[in-house]
Amino acid sequence: MISKNQIKNITRLKQKKYRQQDGLFIAEGRKVIEEFLNSTFKLVDLFTTETFDVDQEVIISENDLKKISCLTTPNKALAVFKIPEDLSLQSDGLILALDSVRDPGNLGTIIRLCDWFGVDQLVCSQETVDCYNPKVVQATMGSLTRVAIHYVDLESYLQKVDLPVFGAFMEGKDVYKSKMPKSGVLVLGNEANGISKAIEVCVTDKISIPRFGALQATESLNVATAGAILLSEFRRG
Amino acid sequence: MISKNQIKNITRLKQKKYRQQDGLFIAEGRKVIEEFLNSTFKLVDLFTTETFDVDQEVIISENDLKKISCLTTPNKALAVFKIPEDLSLQSDGLILALDSVRDPGNLGTIIRLCDWFGVDQLVCSQETVDCYNPKVVQATMGSLTRVAIHYVDLESYLQKVDLPVFGAFMEGKDVYKSKMPKSGVLVLGNEANGISKAIEVCVTDKISIPRFGALQATESLNVATAGAILLSEFRRG
Predict the structure, then answer these.
(1) Which UniProt keyword terms apply here (chains A, B) (predicted)?
(2) Taking Cα atoms as reference points, which of A235, A237, A153 lies closest to residue A202?
């Protein structure tokens, strides 16, 4: 059973304002929830149609799950976890920085990429979509438990950081012909506008992904696929 | 003005069955429509709230556009184009093959990748989402005009093709340490299940993208990001 008050407290977490106020976020589906249960994230509530063998779990009906789920097709369970405190930002190794990435699916894919390529620091501008947005949480497939995400004033962060700052620009140096360092910040820009003028000033090394084909008419790659290619170039050595 | 009958004829194109029956598809938004107008695709209808200076155009109200649009926020214009006839499949150069990619956004991103990397042949299994699905058309950003897409029985195509067939598998050869040929077929698998057993048998060269980081817990990359990294490896030389 789930009370009206509980329904209200959960559904309000779909909004960033309340997630920040309550310090809580939603994860759905057995696989994603289990990734969080097996991490340092603190479980607050677990509503499920089938048992997880977890003390806090409350078995509810499919119908009740529908009332709290953010998914069009609810997936057996919904859990509420605490948003962890922001850990101190390290400044060595490879760091990924996002300048206003707005699409939750793109952010989720980028968090999975960080996890794959062992990038454990992701720095986001304040305008970047919230990583505890339910769509982002679902798209990360659990990678959110292994990547530390920081929301900062990106411009002042990049001004202070003692590392080379890389960004992709049409006129940049061919990334296939450049040796990428082990430490540095790689900046990815907004879906429609790329890297903003204010952030471009902070970029110390402009790079580019060569374009092939006779027509050369494609305007750009999707931010997540560009990120995939660039992270791969940093890691392949 | 747009008639009731026209509205009916356009909205039915949201379904694959009617797109195939009528041989027509929908494109929306000035930028995407212009890419099709500047290509070999044949325009059938153009309904727009602002002029394109095109003979066939019909100026309609925002309200009428809402009635025919597939977008949550209609974007000034909707055009109907003819689905081109299937061109004969070439069998040299780099060819990308999709084994049941189901998500329209992923297919759109993959078509953009083909365009970027000069892959002009994309071969899809019959189970792959239709490339004239409105969500795919929008996600391609016009790249659909520059990539030839074929829907085939993928298994029999791969059995007959006279090229090495590459596929990503956990146990495959490190792609960073392998020299990729100029000609070959690269197969990408389904979002949830990867490459199917029937198609795996046709793969002559298993490759893998190395995973980094201490935990090595990420299960997989998104199909479009994996495709981005692999196409980049084929092209970087």
Answers:
(1) Methyltransferase, Transferase
(2) A153
Closest chain A CA to residue B214? A118
Same domain, A129 and A154: yes
Domain-embedded: residue B89: no
- For residue B237, the chain A residues in CB contact (below 8 A) are 176
* Sign of the CA dihedral with B97 first, then B99, B102, and B103 last: negative
The answer to whether A222 contacts B224, with C-beta atoms less than 8 Å apart, is: yes
**Pair (A126, A68) in one structural domain:** no
**Searching chain B, which residue's CA lies closest to the CA of residue A218?**
B116
The ipTM estimated for the assembled molecules is: 0.91
Cα–Cα distance measured from residue A179 to residue B208, given in angstroms and rounded to the nearest whole number: 22
**Residue A71 belongs to what domain range?**
4-82
Q: For chain B, how many structural domains are there in total?
A: 2
Q: Which residues of B touch A221 (CB under 8 A)?
A: 112-113, 116, 228
d(CA A123, CA A147): 10
Q: Do A190 and A232 share a domain, yes or no?
A: yes
Q: Which amino acid makes up residue A95?
A: I
Selected residue of B36, B232, B235 to mutate for chain A interface (largest A Cβ count, 10 A): B232
CATH, residue A133: 3.40.1280.10
Kindly determine whether residue B115 and residue A217, on different chains, have CB atoms separated by under 8 Å. Answer: yes
Q: Do A105 and B109 touch (CB under 8 A)?
A: no
- Residue B49 in 3-state DSSP? coil
pLDDT tens per residue, chain A (237 residues)?
899 999 999 999 999 999 999 999 999 999 999 999 999 999 999 999 999 999 999 999 999 999 999 999 999 999 999 999 987 888 789 999 999 999 999 999 999 999 999 998 999 999 999 999 999 999 998 899 999 999 999 999 999 999 999 999 989 999 999 999 999 999 999 999 999 999 999 999 999 999 997 666 666 789 999 999 999 999 998
- Asked if A91 and A161 count as a contact pair (C-beta separation under 8 A), the reply is yes
Cβ(A68)–Cβ(A11) below 8 Å: yes
Q: Concatenated DSSP letters for A66-90?
A: HHH--SSS--SEEEEEEPPPPPPPP
A232: nearest CB among B218, B229, B235: B229
- C-beta atoms of A222 and B222 within 8 A: no
Task: Give the number of other CB atoms < 10 A from CB of residue B25.
Answer: 26
Instruction: Dump pLDDT digits (tens) for B128-157.
Output: 999 999 999 999 988 999 999 999 999 999
